[in-house]
Amino acid sequence: MLASIGQFLLILSLTTAVVLMLLPMIGYYKNNDSLMRTGRPLAYLLFVLVFSTFAILVSLFVLQDFSVTYVWQHSSLALPLRYRITATWGAHEGSVLMWITVQALWIAAVARYSRSLSLSQISRVLSVLGIIATGFIAFVLFASNPFEITNPAPLDGRDLNPLLQDFGMIIHPPLLYFGYVGMSVAFSLAVAALIGGQIDEKWIRWSRRWTNLAWAFLTIGIILGSWWAYYELGWGGWWFWDPVENASFLPWLAGTALIHVQAVSERKNAFRGWTVLLAIIAFSLCVLGTFLVRSGSITSVHSFAADPFRGIFILVLLAIYAGGALTLYALRVNQLKSKDAINLESKETMLLGNSLVFITATFTILLGTLFPMIFEAMGKKISVGSPYFGLMFFLIMIPMAVLLPLGAQMKWHKDKMSSAVKALLPHFFIAGLLTVLAYFAFDGLNLRATAGVFGGFWIASTSIMQIIKFPGKPNAGFIGMSVAHLGVAVFLFGMSMTEHKDVEKDLLLKPGQTTQVAGYDFTFNGVTSIQIENYRAQQGSILVSQDGQPLVELHPQKRHYPKQQQPMTEADIYPGFTKDIYVSLGEQINDKGDWAVRIYIKPFIRWMWFGGLMMMAGALIALFNKRNKRLEQQQVDQVMKERLKLS
Amino acid sequence: MTPTRKKRLMMVLMVAVGVGIATGIFLTAFKDNMMYFKSPSEVSQQNYPVNRSFRLGGMVKESSMRRIPDSLKVQFEVTDFAASVLVEYEGILPDLFREGQGVVTIGKMQNDQLFVAEEVLAKHDENYMPPEAAAALEAAKPKYKNTNKESN
Q1: Residue A387: closest C-alpha in chain B
Q2: Is A569 at the interface with chain B, CB within 8 A?
Q3: Staple partner for A257: which of A143, A321, A358, B94, CB 3.0–4.6 Å?
């Protein structure tokens, strides 16, 4: 019954999305105000409908309605309530339903917070967002319907994948989707501007804030994913260059290029075409990522059961969105010619350089991700190992780290490269000195780690100098930028140390045996069986001590969920400011109680995620720029005045 | 040549050199890290890269797993039902590793009998196979269809 209502609401949502796609756009072309005015109410209606649909799916899980196929496949009577709720987005159908729910929320937010846009502008934007919503709601309805019914209903469900029965599942997917789908706003703004044939600085200023917000969500989403993989997959990795991880990283890279170029195009009539193109690329990569994840065409930890129809459906959507936007771009690009001259020695040039670096990184990683598919089409099966990605990314990030302080240092409009270099030069030596100190403090570092640590110090030292020397009271834009750049420094330092100074040991431990790893003593005190909530676990007890002083007792688990045949490894971690101690259980080797145990020492791993959090915080702080607010108020006043004049 | 032209020519040359270096690095990195996927049948026909890592995938043969006492060393056979390859691995096997289930291993042939794996992947759940392993079984199907009943 409830499922039928859900199904009905989904159809209503699709209808509303189609109307939202058509009416305001027709209004725009016919210059009909009342048609254009339908945009905002339709956007709110769409949100209410899609959100109710989503709420119904959640209720079906909470109420354990196993007559719904999707529910019995991913829930069970024993599943605790909190995981029944998160199970909603635990598999394909529910997660695309969440995709459209999040998109509907973005659309409603755009409708609500767009007072500074004229009616013709907002109606185009909402209409383009309607096009995207139509495609994805149709995808849910025709290719991934979560409301399908099983008859007769099974008495119990198949249970949720144990890996997903975790706190990370509550926050990682929603936040990642907010970022992912948020890129559709930047895309719609770009396309709407192309339709109108002109982009002014008000337009870019407005879209810049939305892009910043989406980028902040994308950043936190990726960070949470990395942190989750680290503790939940049980094997201590934080980034695998897995196709699905790349799928979220690619829009992030393009988005990073975009927010930096927007800083220029907002101030000057320059790089406007490039801004639009980057917005199109960023969202197209989001759709491509959705294709990679949903089609199951590439081996990945995230793959759900493969379904070619779904893959083709998304590929068609990608062709329509990216193809349509690029065609429009090709037709209109002449009208976006830069009017303002750009000096070679200026911040503008540096920011252009930044976007080129990030786009190069995007395409290098894209190639590595797609090559296996291309080869497969030629009948050969290959895969691209993570060393490829690691090396390429490292090489591309060298110019990024070298140029970042220079870009932040250079003045707008016209500056002298030599004076910027002169201001930064002392910090080059400070960073060098600190790197030498770090080199000896950590018993030597390899080439990549040395470069990474140097990059971290170099960016940190120059950013701090720029904050101290800032003339007058720093504005939110500058503070945001500095916080984000310091985040890059913290990230680089953490990543370099974690990658090159970690210790990994697979050991065979007998009960009572003590073994030494990286200066710590690990005493294995055997394994006991325990019963918790909906699973049974074998829990190991490992005492960690240093210089004879007990430090912590860790309890890694091997969990067995009754509905699942395979066990699950739950690591136990002793987190710390400068290092994590990470222990997980392999398997029992013999009947004497000997176990395979993996022990990790992960230096500075938390710095990496903290750096990411700082980048996100920076993007959020920049939203509160007073200059933006003042300019926006002027715009609102102007729109109001025009409206009064018309009536 | 006028100075502007000279400047422009220099720019073009620098960009060309830059792009050349970048392409070179890209191709080297790519070539070094590109891994072929081979099925047990292909390996048994000596069709595999020598002294180079590749991915070997198929099913873990039933009751083929053997543990070397007092170590984390294990040996098992990977099969596509037409041929099998002996695999040795030292370390902790993934949770989803099971006899009679799909697996992908990464490593080198030590000699034409033994594959030494550095990594063992079994990223499927009970009703899902790694696509590569599934494809290997599919490819070998005509060879064993007559003698074996459908096992999957």
Answers
A1: B33
A2: yes
A3: A358
pTM confidence score: 0.91
Q: Give which of B141, B103, B114, B85 is closest to A566, Cα–Cα.
A: B103
In tens, the pLDDT along B121-132 reads: 876 544 445 666
Residue A367 with chain B: CB contacts under 8 Å: 26, 30
Q: What are phi and psi of B126, to 5 degrees?
A: -70, -15
CA atoms within 13 A on the CB side of A337: 3
Cβ atoms A58, A81 nearer than 8 A: no
Cβ-nearest to A383 among B55, B72, B127: B55
**CB neighbours of A319 closer than 8 A, spacing ≥ 6?**
none
A108-162 residue pLDDT tens: 999 999 988 899 999 999 999 999 999 999 999 999 999 999 888 898 988 888 8
Phi, psi of B51 (to 5 degrees): 60, 35
Label residue A478 left, alpha or beta by phi (over 0 means left) and psi (-120 to 50 means alpha).
alpha
Whole-number Å distance between alpha carbons of A57 and A97: 9
Q: Does A564 reach chain B within 8 Å, measured CB to CB?
A: yes
Please check whether residue A333 touches B, CB under 8 A.
Answer: no
Q: What is the mean pLDDT of residues A228-242?
A: 83
The CA distance from A491 to A309, in Å, is: 40
Q: Do B26 and A381 touch (CB under 8 A)?
A: no
**C-beta atoms of A382 and B131 within 8 A:** no
The interface predicted TM-score (ipTM) is 0.77
**Residue B12 in contact with partner chain A when CB distance is under 8 A:** no
- Left (φ > 0), alpha (ψ -120 to 50) or beta: where does B71 sit? beta
Tell me if residue A596 falls in helix, strand or coil: strand
Taking residues B42-70, what's their average pLDDT? 89
Closest alpha carbon to A188 in A138, A253, A133: A133
Distance CA A492, CA A497 (A): 9
Yes or no, beta carbons of B92 and A296 under 8 Å apart: no
Q: CB neighbours of A29 closer than 8 A, spacing ≥ 6?
A: none
Nearest residue to A571 via CA among A154, A227, A276: A227
How do residues B126-152 score in pLDDT, each as one tens digit? 444 566 667 777 777 665 544 433 333
User: Which sign, positive or negative, has the C-alpha torsion A305, A160, A88, A178?
Assistant: negative
Which residue reads 């029992």 in tokens?
Answer: A588
Residue-level length of chain A:
647
Could you tell me if A380 lies within 8 Å of chain B, comparing CB atoms?
Answer: yes
pLDDT per residue as tens digits for the range A29-70: 999 999 999 999 999 999 999 999 999 999 999 999 999 999
Structure tokens at A469: 């020397």
Pairing type for strands B34-38 and B54-60 reads parallel
Q: Where do the structural domains in chain A lie, given as residue ranges?
A: 1-165, 201-326+344-393, 503-605
Check CB contact of A592 with chain B, cutoff 8 Å: no
For residue A323, the distance in angstroms to the closest alpha carbon of chain B comes to 27
Q: What is the 3-state secondary structure (H, E, C) of B85-125?
A: EEEEEECCCCCCCCCCCEEEEEEEECCCCEEEEEEEECCCC
State how far the Cα of B55 lies from the Cα of B102, in Å rounded to an integer. 13
CB atoms within 10 A of CB B65: 16
Burial of B44 (0-12, 13-18, 19+ CB in 10 A): middle
Measured between beta carbons, the chain B residues lying within 8 angstroms of A564 are 125-126
* Residues on chain A touching B37 (C-beta within 8 angstroms): 381-383
CB-nearest partner of A388 from B33, B37, B96: B33
User: What SS3 class is residue A433?
Assistant: helix
Fold of A1-165: Four Helix Bundle (Hemerythrin (Met), subunit A) (1.20.120)
CB A391 within 8 A of CB B29: yes
